[in-house]
Queue: 3 jobs
Job 1
Amino acid sequence: MGAPEDIHMAIEKRLREKLGPLGGKLHTGRSRNDQVAVDLRLYVKNAGAQLLDAESGLESALITRAEEHLDTVMPGYTHTQRAQPVLLAHHLLAYVEMLRRDRGRIEDALKRANVSPLGAGALAGSGFPIDRTALARDLGFATASANSLDAVADRDFALELLAACSIAMIHLSRLCGEIVLWTSVEFSFAALPDALASGSSMMPNKKNPCAAELVRAKSGRVTGDLINLLMVLKGLPLAYNRDLQEDKEALFDGVDTTIACLQVAARLVLGLRFDRDIMRKAALAGYTLATEAADYLSRKGMPFRDAHRLVGQMVAKGIATHQGLEDFSLKELQQFSPLFGADIFNYLTLEGALKSRDVLGGTAPAQVKEALAHVKA
């Protein structure tokens, strides 16, 4: 009883205590509705800048590691099955592309957040002849809102930032999911430093990639924040409703969680110690050069579908005889097709397979170097 109704009234009360009647003029031509909308938009602008900074940190980490591994070969996967050899640098730069799109979404959201609601009043505008454009400029906004009802009633600018955070977190979840796989004994592609892993309370042999697992899990938390705010806005009649008080918890949590996860992911990427030899052996196992043999026959004039079927028969024989395609002699290969010549062995190597993918966006060393130069520019 007798306490201020909320933070706005508490501030006004304190100003009146310090300034006397002048403090009571704080809300002249203003409402809590347009003021809180201004505050939230200012928060979104600041939060967006922090998100972009954290995104840059992870991008830089990925680019640094890609530059270190321009000659490291690994198996590329589809359906979690070994498919074709790729460069580790190419794999890491795929996440840079995802992060660049995440950055674009955040920047795009910030453009629409850069609008000042001040002067919209409770819902109908100010009763005083204020210069809303000048107010917007003084507060660092690009422009003033065009409709007073919309200015106090909507939070789609917060939704956009949360949506961008959610998509970024899905990308982080995928990256961290791969780190979990790569650091497992089954893969043994990489190891994490002790600072980014945990032991088992029972099993002395365990080294668990807990930091990566937690980032992977927190994607659900941020997506939940987005759904939370969507449901707050669903069905709200114009203009302001107290339901909008619930926008803060979801927005603050989603932003804070995403920033923290971006920072942890950067540490994970920088901390990984890759085993080049194991990755190279894995890149050759599983008949990952089969597509090269089919492409070779196709370049010699055989319809690709026929070549695909024929190389499938070669793989079946290789499995039965415990041979890789690169282990077949030319005579054995020509038993499948006379189109095979001695030059086939230039393609049935990891280097030959990589070099053949020399198209924009491909994993050929020349293309990956060019892609790296592009993201560093």
Job 2
Amino acid sequence: MIVALHVATGAVAGAATGSRAKALLLGPVLHLAGDWMPHEDFRSRRFEIGSGVAAVALLVARRGPFDPATLGAAACSAPDLEHVLPSLRPGGRKTFHDRLGWHRSGRFPALLQLALACGIIGTLILRSGRGPEAA
């Protein structure tokens, strides 16, 4: 699953539970479930990182850093950090993507995943209850 959709699914879980602790616990589980579903990834690591960071930043800006949706988004996308930070690879192997072996390539198009992620994040931002109109 692309990073932005990991962010979106984690955010939905956090918003649905309304609990910071549950959002943090569900995040890695949802990451594994998302990677288990056969899917395409974007070839550009820069785009993957940028879109994921942008999605989390939008949630932080609109809902706050400690909102359950924001924490769920961060927790669900965090396992992908092992792709870019070698210090997160014990013994040189990726825990989520090599050892657990749940990543599946398949036909769920990356562009469709991005569209879903944008729709989900957009909805969560619009319904956040924060911002000038909530003040």
Job 3
Amino acid sequence: MKHSTDRILTTHVGSLIRPPALQEFLRARQAGKPYDETAYQKCLTDSVAEVVRQQADVGIDVPSDGEFGKSISWAQYALTRLSGFQRRPIKTETDNPFKRGADRTRFAEFYAELDAKETVSTTMEAICVGPIAYTGQAELKRDIDNFKAALAKVKTEDAFLPVAAPASVIPDRKNEYYKNDEELQVAIAAAMRTEYKMIVDAGFLVQLDDARSAVTYDRMVPPGSFADYKTWLAHQIDILNHAIEGLPADRIRYHVCWGSWPGPHVSDVPLKDIVDILLRAKVGAFVIEGANPRHEHEWQVWKNAKLGGGQVLIPGVISHATNVVEHPELVAERIVRLAKLVGRENVIGGTDCGFAQGPFYRRVHPSVMWAKLEALAAGARLASKELWS
């Protein structure tokens, strides 16, 4: 894991907006329509090369492949890489887990209006109907090869591939095969270890994306208690640690956010109430949302919370969810105040979440995304001047 030894390094959460040419192939794949496989693979390779070049050009030190190789969302893509699952249409709106939660209950009128403009894209549910095993080796190797080829043409400090953490793999899955959900979760973690290990063995950082760890509070409390939620969360961290056991911690990043939907988020669990559990993850870096108005104040959590030896904090200092481009001086301010708490060498500037939650879903315009990443790099340079002056 690279540290900011002589300047503040920059990265982001991983998912970037797909170019239109690639989206056309992905639409055909999702719809089951015919398409030219050779042309698709060439488009994918070229698109990854271009997005890596663009990241390097705007000043991102630790880029990703944009998740361009995933044909569905960051959490559902595992359906194409794991055996044992079957997809079925969600029967009614009330059965849709993406339309439940404390935030949606309190702001029902707002969400009714939002859903009318942005239809909830999840209309299928995933049911485990057989033994789970990892089957995505060929697809992952393709992504690794494309990424390596792209990185060979640019200069970066490191590189990472984002994948789903065990708790966030196919969220809201249903179980019709294993004796209980505990067995199901353990089977998923064991299968996904193959993916995690392949990425590390290829020489990349692996980032475990885990929106579900924090978002579950909104779904669980009420009717459950906060104690119920903390017990659940602690168990998820145990499962995560089991999945990465034996892998080098300094090659693993753990990303936590409160979901990407554009809502009030007043029912988000406070970071200060769960940071002790999150820090039990045996990883080299924590990538934590921190730039939006609901969570920016939580930089103060690090006055008391302590990173482990050699660990890095990658705070969100750029929001993915607003078209307003942060001023570099604000970015620098966010970085400096954290650097003074955890050490300048232990901070890498990042983003709150991915700019594209799926191949066709984005929060900002592509031109705005690149302007934000430019602002991130510019802010990191300003912070470096202050911290190393």
